[in-house]
Amino acid sequence: MKKHIVVLTGAGMSAESGLKTFRDADGLWEGHDVMQVASPQGFASNPELVLEFYNQRRKQLLDVKPNTAHVALAKLEQDYNITIITQNVDDLHERAGSTNVVHLHGELLKVRSTHNELDVQDWQTDLTLGDKCSKGYQLRPYIVWFGEAVPLIETAINICQTADILLIIGTSMQVYPAASLMHYVRPETKIYYLDPKPAMDSNAQVTIIAKSATLGVIEFINML
């Protein structure tokens, strides 16, 4: 039976593809206060700004490609049972060939009804005011905003409980509930934390790889 490797990825995973990390050091995202563009309140007060913000992110995503770390993780499926739990809203894992990806915070190339969060559809072009679902309600980005529940967190917890190895890539471990997932693995599960500026120390269970995603994934694979 193949070992189950669970991979938890954050913004650092996609940074080397050219996607900007979620927040810069000053707390702004592309020049905007995060709560203006990533909260229900922000959408209620200025929906045009929010829709245009995600239109720009969508265009940027369609311009970039998976990096070698995305590709290496996809190739691991040949020898291991791989589940990727990502905080990223891009589709770079899928484009690289990964077949089992859980998006905790939504997906940029999908939209949903403001009336029914389960009414979701694929979307690659600009989303504007007046774009409506089949029931006549405005569509919004399929993104889990600050203050909203994370629908797939229980799924992610269950996955982590079955991990033989947990690999954490490019996440600050500051955003909850995603940051809590490492605490659900079994005591004997080996954890590898891969980040150029690691937010934790190594111990008997945790091995630190203080490198970027592309370099660190190669090092991790060599350790297997």
Corresponding CATH superfamily of the largest domain: TPP-binding domain
Broad CATH class of the largest domain: Alpha Beta
The total of helices stands at 8
Any idea what the shape is? elongated
Spatial extent as radius of gyration: 18 Å
Distance between the termini: 16 Å
Tell me the β content: 15-25%
The tally of domains stands at 2
Q: How many strands appear in the DSSP assignment?
A: 11
Secondary-structure element series: EHEEHHHHEHEEEEHEEEH
Strand order of the largest sheet: 5-4-1-9-10-11
CATH topology title of the largest domain: Rossmann fold
Largest sheet: 6 strands, parallel
**What is the level-2 CATH architecture name of the largest domain?**
3-Layer(aba) Sandwich
**In terms of structural class, how would the helical and strand content be classed?**
alpha/beta
Mean pLDDT: 93
| Percentage of residues in helical conformation | 25-40%
- As residue ranges, the low-confidence spans are none
Walk me through this protein's architecture.
With 224 residues, the chain is α/β, with parallel strands linked by helices. It has two domains: 1-19 and 65-105 and 149-224, Rossmann fold (3-Layer(aba) Sandwich), CATH 3.40.50.1220; 21-63 and 109-143, SIR2/SIRT2 'Small Domain', CATH 3.30.1600.10. 29% of the residues lie in helices and 22% in strands. It contains eight helices and eleven strands. The strands form three sheets. It has a six-stranded parallel β-sheet, with helices on both faces. It has a three-stranded antiparallel β-sheet with strand order 7-6-8, with helices on one face. The protein has a two-stranded antiparallel sheet with strand order 2-3. Helix 6 links the parallel strand 4 and strand 5. Helix 5 (68-75) packs parallel to helix 8. The chain is elongated, with a radius of gyration of 18 Å. The model has no long low-confidence stretch (mean pLDDT 93).
